[in-house]
Records
---
Amino acid sequence: MIVTEKKATQIDDVLDRMAEDVQLDKTRHERMISSYEAVREWIEADEKFFKPYKYDVYPHGSVRILTTVKPIGRDEFDLDIAVHLKYGTPHTPERIYNELRRRLNEHGLYKDMLEAKNRCIRLKYAGDYHMDILPGVQEIEYDKNCIMVPDRELGSWVSSNPRGYADWFIAKANLVRESLLEKALRAENLPADDYSKKKPLQRGVQLIKRYRDIYFQKNDSYRTSSVILTTIAGQFYQGEESIFDTVDNIVTTIQSRIGQSYGRLKIINPVNPDEDFTDKWDSEPEYYEAFKRFSIHLYNEWQRLKEDNGIIEESHIMKGLFGDELFSRAQTNQATWMERYRKSNELGMDRNNGLLTSAGLSGSSVVKSNTFFGG
């Protein structure tokens, strides 16, 4: 745990380490970026269709907003890419989609990885990740983010705004300038590079998504989608400084809204008020019932964590929410971190309450380093 006398900061340290563990690792991230750059260059070099037009190719989704979570049971992430043609491109949605498909099929490697989806084309990097490429045309001249994307089932355009959504979420995450963990590190003169710079909202979304994967592991027929959970979190976030308080506020607000609603809870796209991310809950109400059970369970377990149950019971709750191995690795990481600072005589103990703190703080004494003989 982070060396501080406050229990809230100690809990945030555990949550931060678990969220760090489930996200896209550096090696995988670099490999995905390399694949993205290769696809972008291949599309831009197309002489038959794409080259004459002005367009952007950019990532969106969880990779862009830094909320990636490794799926349980399979070693595969997803990378969402948009091919965003600028305003005035005079083509039908079918033409845009088919030209993208044609261009990818011309590549010796991509043609065997390609899978046609309803609105995008997927490239499957076996056992590693897949890339969903969404073609679209800028919808309004004065709005650079709104795009129309082809929907093959509908046979027409559908309004979308993946870049605007990412900007909205990042702005919400940045409501807090400095997190509880960052403040504790600064106050205790400890190096900030021991923690990532992710905001509590980003960490909260990662943990809620991880809990979702645990909860629906045995039966994922009516699993709540990531975009719904991410949007709920962003809409209900109030600028909390701690990860724990962020999740607590989100799950508490969900329960309040469900209790107040005469119908189902609606989650509207914050950058497209005409799009209801939860419209499927009308045609298939089983999704909404599953969401309610899932959110109630998380709420109840989070309330238990707020009680003074002791370390053993708190560990049991954390393992139930996020998995035994993930929690155990977080404990191992924090123990290694503390031992490093103890050996350098930077770890202290508050003489008033016995909790670990920085050796330089008033009222603390240095925690001596262990040796083989205990000296």
---
Amino acid sequence: MDLESLVNAHQQQFSQTEREILAFMLNNEQFVADSTITSLAHRTFTSTSSIIRLTKKLGFTGFAELKYFVKNSLAEAAPVNTDFIASGARDINKTLSDLTQRDLTEVVEKIHRARTVYCFGTGYAQRNAVQEFAKSMVACGKFTHVIPAKNEFIGSVQAMGEQDVVILVSLSGSTESVMETVRTLSLRKVPMIAITGAGINPMSHLADFSLHYETTPTRLPGHKTPYHSFVALTVLLDYLTRQYIKFLEEGNS
């Protein structure tokens, strides 16, 4: 558990002043981990007694225990990628290298034979990527439908059949909020192509075909959650599009 989760678990207990202190703390966790109680009181325009009362509401014996908790939470966060620029090139090159060693004939044939190609991305960046991929497929004469959100994905299952194909784009391949729907598609024998970050995951395990892209995480200043670039995902989808165009140029119909 991190500080944000802890605050959310106790959010009904705080006064307006305590909420303002917490807002500062959540936006400046490194400062909290390094500061004294007097420094924190000064930065939040409050008193040390206010800070102590707040720490006890959070379940700590005092400010020292809170500091220790925040420091450990930050240490467990995603590491800073000290070679961030070069890692982007490595992600692209590794993704392309893996793709060029695979025979994608069955994948593009499955797309070509499908009555409808359904595309679903589990996150904002993934949905943007599949939007561009879908435009390319439509330009190639392939009827493609992008599912815009999770609820629509769940609601579309009844319309999907064995003559369709569903392209799932995810980072982890284990987004629990959609896995029940993925399992349902598998039981209904709806063909699926999973495109996920590298590694074995539940989504790729259930899919008929699995493709992977590289993305080296880093931690941005002031953030604990990792930042992922999806440039290699875009490269993968572009490569798949080019393979499909090549398939058509070779006279397949």
